[in-house]
Amino acid sequence: MQVALVGLGVMGKNLALNLIEKGLTLVAYDKNPDAGEELLSCAKSQGMADRLHIVSDLNDMVKRLTAPRSILLLVPAGELVDKVCTELVEAGVECDDIIVDCGNSNYKDGITRKLKYQNKFEFATMGISGGAEGARHGPAMMASGSEGGWERVEPWFEKVAASYKGDSCFARVGQSASGHFVKMVHNGIEYALMQLIAEMYQLLRLGTKRSPKEVAAIFEQWSEGDLNSYLLSISSHILSLETDSDESLVDLIDNKVGAKGTGLWTAQNALELGIAVPSLVAAVQARHLTNTCDTHAAKEMTYAAKSTTEVELDLEELKEAFLLASLLAYRQGLALIKGASRAHQWKVDLSKTLQTWRAGCIIRADYLDNIAQGVEFIDTLGKEAISLRKITGQAMMTGLAFPVLSSTQTYFATLTTPSNGHLVQAQRDYFGEHGIKTHSGEVCHLTDLVEIDAKVR
Ligand code: 6PG
User: Fold this and answer.
1) Residue 259 CA, closest ligand 1 atom number
2) Alpha-carbon distance 9 to 158, whole Å?
3) Does residue 130 have its Cβ closer than 6 Å to ligand 1?
4) What's the average model confidence in pLDDT over 163-170?
5) What dotted CATH number matches 183-416?
6) Is 186 helix (H, G, I), strand (E, B) or coil?
7) 454: exposed, middle or buried (C-beta count within 10 Å: 0-12, 13-18, 19+)?
8) Which of 243, 278, 317, 430 gets the highest tally of CB atoms within 10 A of its CB?
9) To the nearest whole number, what is the mean pLDDT of the chain?
10) Does the domain at residues 2-174 carry the CATH identifier 3.40.50.720?
């Protein structure tokens, strides 16, 4: 079987080697000839160069492929995807050729492209997670759509993807461009989990005066049990690293955090769909806040540094709070996928989605086993709920910032304790006559229920 790959950056190069290793013959192209050379020399050093053909342009690529063609794109999201698609059309791709966009594209672009290219070729989308290592040895592959060409490439992708207990982490999760939506939410959860771990670290470091190495040891201990996850393991490793002069590596690193945009898209889509994912939104804003000191607004204001307070934490409670907060980040992400699937009629299969996250991806974690049985179990975690409440309170008392921890506790409390929405309903009707709905289901105005002689002005 022959496939083509356009884009030989870090992800492209590693995926290319993985594809060849699994037995595919690969025709590869990058506009930078050095990238092609580098892939060729890697393939040679691994004894796989006979199944690799580097081409110098897309015309040559299309000519070399036997129809119906299968072409993967791993180019930066945005205009470049359309540029390459247009060039491939000019080079002669045909109706039953499949082109799979494997980058971190916005799902909305995927929907537009499906229409735009519908009579020219089969345009399909697939989100890939796992970084360079994952791409090389087995990524998570969140594909979607029912294009004819999938049947040709699917059996191969099942082998190229990571596997968990014998099941492939490749799946077509739903219709249309839902694969990219699922990958976007994966990244939204990724942001929340990363920030939550950073908050646990800061609580232990500044709130209890532990060294990075001591925090690393706690994280490592957690990783040995149910809490084992890729992000916790790498954080433990990072915190244990020291320079030759015994300085913690993390102390050399600036606080400003960048972002490529998938977290922001997750927040935007959740707000547009009216689905609450406060932990995910808080993580995006936490990154924005790390950059605040450079903004125009911040330069006009001064924030005097405040002292912080030490607290005494029960490590078992901290662990329970962390577990529940992590589970709630997935729960919010899954609720968003479910809501979007309903709104767009994508028929996303959540169990297939979770299967793609079991191995290879950045948010893989042992407790996904429990989530896969049904998120309802989260409600039964009584001890963890008390710990989340208590730890959040203690964390806030330090005076430090815990955007994801506090948002998660607030989210959970909102769903599990009495609401105050009745007063907000009443306020809206009081000044704007927007109407209220009563417990009995009646839709009316405040004045239908009580006499209001004169309104407050
Ligand atoms: C993955 C990662 C990957 C990448 C993100 C980083 O699943 O392999 O999520 O997609 O690391 O683009 O995103 P930010 O630059 O926005 O943190």
Assistant:
1) 16
2) 23
3) yes
4) 96
5) 1.10.1040.10
6) helix
7) exposed
8) 278
9) 96
10) yes
